[in-house]
Amino acid sequence: MNILFSEIIENVRNAYPTIVFPEGEDERVLQAAYQLDIEKLIRPVLIGREKELIKKWKDLFSSIPETVKVCDPQTCPQLNTYRDAMYDKRKSKMTKAEAENLIQEPNYFGMMLLERGEVNGFVGGAQYATRDILKPAMQLIKTKPSVKRISSYFVMLKEKTVYFFADCAVNVSPQSRDLAEIANLTACSTEMFNINPRVAFLSYSTNGSAQSEETAVVHEAVRIFKQNYPKWPVDGEIQFDAAIIPEIAQKKSPYSPLQGNANVFVFPNLDAANIAYKITQRLGGFQALGPILQGLNKPVNDLSRGCSSTDIYYMALITGLQCIEQHQAELGKSVQ
């Protein structure tokens, strides 16, 4: 286990949040839920066909403990209540017939459990595509008032090394203000792990060594970031080697506040970010956890469909950490 998670595990165990998994019949989800339950870290809520799900659990382990809840949308006595609540929330853009059909889908059913406060977090995507997690999240959970658009990041782990890559899953061609906001949200997320963010806005150019429309977007993003979020050390536009290797930083960007020690990498577009995290994972031997969503009103996280049960376990822990952060933020608001 990476050292990053030692403290997270204890914090999540103390909070003991309830997290819903919409793909409850997936064997990888069942294995992760079993481990999370026996370690008393999270109270899993598994969505699926009740008989089939219970049979799969028994085949893998034993009888389902009381601390693991199974929800079958087809037999749920509160289904109509959830349907009506969803329709009331979306009636300007959704018919009653659409609400009737959608609430029976595990992704929408699980998102309504979260929206109504019956669970603390949501982890899906083992079978669903990212768009099928994002759409109900945007419709029902919505973005925080201070956030223009949601974004995502990956935590990249290898031994004692931890990097944060953004945005690897959501925004296809972010403009300068989008990139600045993505960087700010990711830096805030980095602090959630008790790590001081050092932000690099990546490009094929370092501080004007090449110029194009693409580098201009990144250059402007850095200007906006420095103006609006002056809290963290930042450099850009900057090439990856100059952001991560001190000797190269001395040659390419000798006055950089990062000095080749960046840990938050903001990529110029989704192509670059998605390719980069997969190369880092598959060729570099890093564990890739994500995409972790940021900017929503409540903790919702997406999984890669190629994820393992271990990936789901760690994503649930990160979601639990987000639940703690949200609870603390709500307490702060109530005190004010």
Automatic annotation (TrEMBL):
It is an enzyme of class 2 (transferase). The keyword Nucleotidyltransferase does not apply. NCBIfam families: PRK09653.1 (NF007233), pta (TIGR00651). It catalyses: acetyl-CoA + phosphate = acetyl phosphate + CoA. Pfam families: PTA_PTB (PF01515). SUPFAM superfamilies: Isocitrate/Isopropylmalate dehydrogenase-like. Belongs to the phosphate acetyltransferase and butyryltransferase family. PANTHER family: PHOSPHATE ACETYLTRANSFERASE. GO terms for molecular function: phosphate acetyltransferase activity. Its EC number is 2.3.1.8. This is Phosphate acetyltransferase. Residues 5-319 form the Phosphate acetyl/butaryl transferase domain. Pathway: Metabolic intermediate biosynthesis; acetyl-CoA biosynthesis; acetyl-CoA from acetate: step 2/2. Keywords: Acyltransferase, Transferase. It comes from the Bacteria.
